[in-house]
Structure formats: structure tokens, C-alpha cells
């Protein structure tokens, strides 16, 4: 399974389908561009079923309901959910992840810091990482749309934070904008040595969305009873044929690690309260975030390709129409 | 680091040292022979510091105090702890893991089912495995001194149990003596297929003391939110140079696994209550166990070699003197 490229996508026009009983018509305002879409678009075992060829690309989006045959979702309601890479969606309540009456932040934030990225960062870090003040936290993809929030959440929890990222520019971003105590360009050589210099006593929590050699290196510097939160495997380009690497079970054993996998859609029951907690943190100034907003649906495939190339800065969104 | 062989050991005679303030002289009755002794005897990073060449082999044992200068441990007290492969030990309270007034079971049991094996099985399975009735449990080294107890504890907890072991004889032992619902000889070919046939819906808990290919195969048949309890890595002959294997982080992620390492000495505060819980289970008939008791300290090195060769049956002990 490779990385999707723009030529894998086509822009099609279609008549709006009729709105059936229990459905509503949504005008999409912000389309979300997410690393996990690679998995959604690929054939093979994953935690979501693949998108059939020729159908609308599965995607999250913020939209506003224009016409409704579900009394719980009247016209004018803003929602965030499975609306697809399209300008209009016919959806049902099952497609909705969050909704809100009066927006506390600009609408784009509901697809980013208050959307799946913020919800993932908060629920994975607090739920599986279980941070204690004074602990040391390593974050891979530290400047990314989830990682940059984890770094800030860790700092807000009283932890020391070390970020890994893939360029010197992003190292600067991590330190200056996201408040990491130290940041390391994992491409610049001796990663094990750099980690040891940044945290001589090792890490209590490793929030890893990279996998591969980055995971193996960080794992070998975990403190006893450390928690590894596996939230992605972005550094491993393909899983077929099955890639090999260092055996890690002896590290799990001797360091008494707790290594857990996090998939956000298991935690839907907590989205509402978590969205409020995140909005509070943004309003208090504890969380800053970047958005990379591009215009027009035709920009979406290139935006996804840029994401895999590491050319994004913060949460990537596609604004449709006037975006409001 | 290789497996210790009898030639690595020597039997030496020495004068009994004087018993200092706070110390006591213990006559050893049963020496314990444990897989972890390989780690204790080896140089290199481990969770216990290595035994210096030329000193007494670190070992657990049951003994009786013959002379004491610690009022909390009067002569006649039976103890289980770090008494070494020797006939007499001078020890302190810090060397003691458990003690008991009136034995409820034969003294050998205090070095086996009520000793580190039973304590490990109980605390690791219940503490990290968190079994629910109706779940399916996979145990590697299923006929071993820890695994055979885990299988029975799982059954007592209302779980379906599948055992992995290394010979057809032990498969029979698993089914007939330890009550596994199914048992598989992992040497007999298609392990993945055999696991799938035994548990088509996968495993909720994998109690693994094997590591290596056995771990990789079981891990790929875990159910969502499954727990892997890493309690050993007996199937991997050496860790230097670092061995490679299948990358497992994507499985941890997509299956939302919780993979934890268990080291018994972290849990000393629970030994007393757990010893009582285990004795209750033995007396109720829920737990059966085998002992492989050999005579005389000179039998210890071969007994350890047999353990690594898989030639043991149940808990290996060395009886000294009349063993009473």
C-alpha cells in the first residue's frame, strides 16, 4: 500500500440526491485532510473499511445543514463529521461526530483543534499516557497537527517535553511556537545520542505517531513503567510485505512498559466533553495551533500528498465557497 | 549471552561466616531453579544486576532459620527468599520474600506454587491481563511452572484457555492435567492456522513468556482491546546482537492492544495476600501443579540446563538434606 498521489483522484460532478426521511443536506465549509486517509483509501485490513474505487473520498468536514428531514438536526445546524470530500453531502445522525450551538472559535477550528486532531491528542495523551507533573514526555511528529497539541497538553500538565520532527525549521517551530523544552531533527544523525542528551534519565511517556526506527530508538530510552501511546505509524511507508525491525518484547518486559494503541473512533462518547475542555484551553492561551487552509475542492489531493511529504504546517483544511 | 551449562558452575566449600547484628543463619531446604537465572548469571543490562564470577549463584530457596540476631526472625522461622544455591546462607530481612507460621502445604510448595511462580502467574494474569468471564486466553509455555498456573487461573476466572507448548507429550499434559480447552504443539507446523482453528474469533489475553515468532503469530490474532502480558522471552536464544522480527507497532495500533511487561519483584507488597489466595485455590482443588524435585546441590546446574532444553516437568527444585 503506497501513498495516494493526486492522479489517484478525479473531480466529478453529480446531481444532488433527494433528501430521504432521517437525512439532511449539508453544505460543506471546511474539508479535513488527514494522514489516516491513506488507510481509508487503501485496500487491505485496517480499522476502517476501504473506500471503493470511484466513490467519494471518505473525509471529515465541517458543514452547515441546509435542508433536513431529521427533527434533531434542523436547517442551520453546524456539524462536524463524515461528510466526504465533496461540496454537498447527504448525511444522517450517524455521520455526525460533534455539533455546537454558538461557535466559541472560528469554524475551521471545529475541524482541527476541536476536531479529530484535538480530540485525539487530548484523549490519547490523558487516557493512555496518564501524565504526572514532573514526568518527561517524548513526542514524535512533534510539529504535526496532533503532536503539536500533545506537546502543549504535556506542558500544561507540568511535564518536560521533547519533540522529534523532520527539519530544522520544524525544530525551531517546536521550541518557539509549541513550547517544547527541547526539539530534535531526527534526520540529523545520531538520534539515540540526541535523545540521551535531551533527557539523560529517559522518558516516562512516548507519544508516537511515527513507528519504525524512531519508535525503536525512543522505546530503548523509556524509564521503568513508561507508557508508549501508539497513535500512528507515519514513518513506515508500507506494511506489505511485512517490514522487519528490532525485536521489542524484551524491552517491554525489562522496562515494564505499557504500550497501547489508540484509535479515536473508539472514544466517541467523550467527544462532547473533550471539545469543551479543549476550547477552554485555547481560550486560556494554553494551546496554540496552526492551520494550513487551501481553497477549493480541487486542492484536496495535492494537500494530502503534501502532508505525506511533510510540507504542511499545522492542520490542513480545504475551504469551500466563502468558508463561513 | 548464551544459556549457562553445568561447566559454568563449580561447587566450593567454605567456612560458615559469623552471624552479624541484624543477620540470621538459614539452613536451606529447597533451592529453586528458575529460567530467569540465565539473566541473573549473565553480564549485560537486565532488571537485576549480574552475579559476579566466582560468587554464589543467585537463587531463591526455602529455608529455616537456625541462628538469629534479628528479633523479628527468630530461630525456627521458615522463610522463602534470596538464599542462593548453597546449603547455608547468612541473610537479612531484605532477602526475605515470604514467611509463614504454620505451613498449609508441603514446604516445597512455598518455593513453587506459593513462591515466585504462583505469585507471578496470579499477579501478572489478574493485574495486567484483567480477565473477564467468557474471554479467550492464549498461554505460551503453557505446561511450564508459570504457564500451567496461568491456564488454570484463567479457567477458574471463567475464560476459555488455549495453551502453546513444545511437544506432543506436553500437549497431552496441558489438556489432561491443566484443563486447557485446547493445546497446540508450536513445533508441529502452521502455528497461525492452528491458533485460528482453536480460536476463530481471536484472543482477548495473550500471556506470553516466549517472545519471538510465537509472540508475533499470537499478536496477529488478538481481538480489539486485547491485552498482551509479556512475562518472559524464553524462545529467543540471545539478545546480542539485537535480533530482528516483524514490526508490531501497526498491530498494537489497529487492534488497540495493551502490551505490558511484568517483573514480579515490583509487586512485593502484594506477596502476602497473594500467597493466601493461591493456597485457598490449591486447597479448593482449582490449582494442580507438578514438581520436579532433584536431590543434592550438585544437581542444580544440570537442572537449570534441562529447564532450557525443555526437559523439565513443572517446577524444578533441589532438595537438600532430608528436605524437611
Oligomer: homodimer
Q: What proportion of the residues of chain A is helical, as a percent range?
A: 25-40%
Q: Which value, in Å, is the CA radius of gyration of chain A? A: 20 Å
> Uncertain spans of chain A, ≥5 residues at pLDDT below 50?
43-47
In what range is the share of β-strand residues of chain A? 15-25%
Could you say which structural class the secondary elements and strand pairing of chain A correspond to? alpha/beta
CATH architecture of the largest domain in chain A: 3-Layer(aba) Sandwich
The averaged pLDDT of chain A comes out at: 91
How many helices of chain A? The count is 9
Care to describe what's here?
With 324 residues, chain A is of the alpha/beta class. The first copy, chain A, has 2 domains: 6-112 and 289-319, Medium-chain alcohol dehydrogenases, catalytic domain (Quinone Oxidoreductase, Chain A, domain 1, Alpha-Beta Complex); 116-265, NAD(P)-binding Rossmann-like Domain (Rossmann fold). Chain A has helices spanning 37-41, 116-129, 147-156, 168-176, 191-198, 212-219, 249-254, 271-284, 300-309, and strands at 24-33, 60-68, 78-82, 88-91, 96-100, 136-139, 160-165, 182-185, 203-208, 222-230, 244-246, 258-261, 291-295, 315-319. In chain A, strands 1, 2, 3, 4, 5, 13 and 14 form a 7-stranded mixed β-sheet that branches. In chain A, strands 8-7-6-9-10-12 form a 6-stranded parallel β-sheet, with helices on both faces. In chain A, strand 6 (136-139), helix 3 (147-156) and strand 7 (160-165) form a beta-alpha-beta unit. In chain A, helix 2 (116-129) packs across helix 3 and helix 2 packs across helix 8 (271-284). The longest helix of chain A is centred in the middle third of the chain and has 14 residues, at 116-129. The first copy, chain A, is globular. The first copy, chain A, starts with 23 loop residues before the first strand and ends in a 5-residue tail after the last strand. Chain A binds chain B through residues 45-47, 208, 211-212, 215, 230-233, 236, 239, 242-263, 266, and chain B through 45-47, 208, 211-212, 215, 230-233, 236, 239, 242-250, 252-263, 266. Strand 11 of chain A pairs antiparallel with strand 11 of chain B.
Amino acid at each position: 500500500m503506497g501513498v495516494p498521489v493526486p492522479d489517484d483522484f478525479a473531480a466529478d460532478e453529480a446531481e444532488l440526491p433527494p433528501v430521504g426521511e432521517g437525512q439532511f443536506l449539508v453544505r460543506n465549509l471546511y474539508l479535513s485532510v488527514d494522514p489516516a486517509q491513506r488507510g481509508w483509501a487503501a485496500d487491505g485490513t485496517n480499522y476502517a473499511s476501504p473506500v471503493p474505487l470511484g466513490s467519494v473520498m471518505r473525509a471529515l468536514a465541517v458543514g452547515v445543514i441546509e435542508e433536513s428531514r431529521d427533527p434533531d438536526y434542523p436547517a442551520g445546524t453546524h456539524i462536524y463529521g463524515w461528510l466526504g470530500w465533496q461540496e454537498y453531502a447527504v448525511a444522517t445522525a450517524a455521520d455526525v461526530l460533534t455539533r455546537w450551538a454558538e461557535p466559541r472559535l472560528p469554524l475551521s477550528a471545529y475541524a482541527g483543534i476541536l476536531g479529530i486532531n484535538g480530540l485525539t491528542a487530548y484523549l490519547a495523551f490523558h487516557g493512555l499516557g496518564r501524565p504526572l507533573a514532573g514526568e518527561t514526555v517524548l513526542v514524535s511528529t512533534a510539529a504535526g497537527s496532533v503532536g503539536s497539541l500533545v506537546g502543549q497538553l504535556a506542558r500544561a500538565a507540568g511535564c518536560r517535553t521533547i519533540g522529534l520532527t523532520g527539519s530544522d525549521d520544524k525544530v525551531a517551530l517546536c521550541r518557539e511556537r509549541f513550547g517544547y523544552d527541547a526539539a530534535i531533527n531526527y534526520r540529523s544523525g545520531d538520534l539515540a545520542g540526541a535523545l540521551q542528551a535531551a533527557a539523560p534519565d529517559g522518558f516516562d511517556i512516548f507519544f508516537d505517531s511515527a513507528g519504525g526506527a524512531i519508535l525503536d530508538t525512543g522505546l530503548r530510552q523509556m524509564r521503568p513503567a513508561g507508557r508508549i501511546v501508539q497513535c500512528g505509524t507515519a514513518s513506515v511507508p508500507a506494511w506489505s510485505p511485512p517490514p522487519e525491525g528490532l525485536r521489542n518484547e524484551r524491552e517491554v518486559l525489562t522496562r515494564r512498559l505499557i504500550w497501547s494503541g489508540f484509535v479515536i473512533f473508539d472514544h466517541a462518547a467523550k467527544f462532547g466533553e473533550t471539545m469543551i475542555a479543549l476550547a477552554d484551553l485555547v481560550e486560556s492561551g494554553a494551546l496554540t495551533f496552526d492551520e494550513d487552509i487551501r481553497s477549493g475542492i480541487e486542492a484536496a489531493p495535492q494537500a494530502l500528498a503534501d502532508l505525506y511529504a511533510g510540507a504542511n504546517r499545522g492542520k490542513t483544511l480545504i475551504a469551500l465557497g466563502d468558508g463561513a
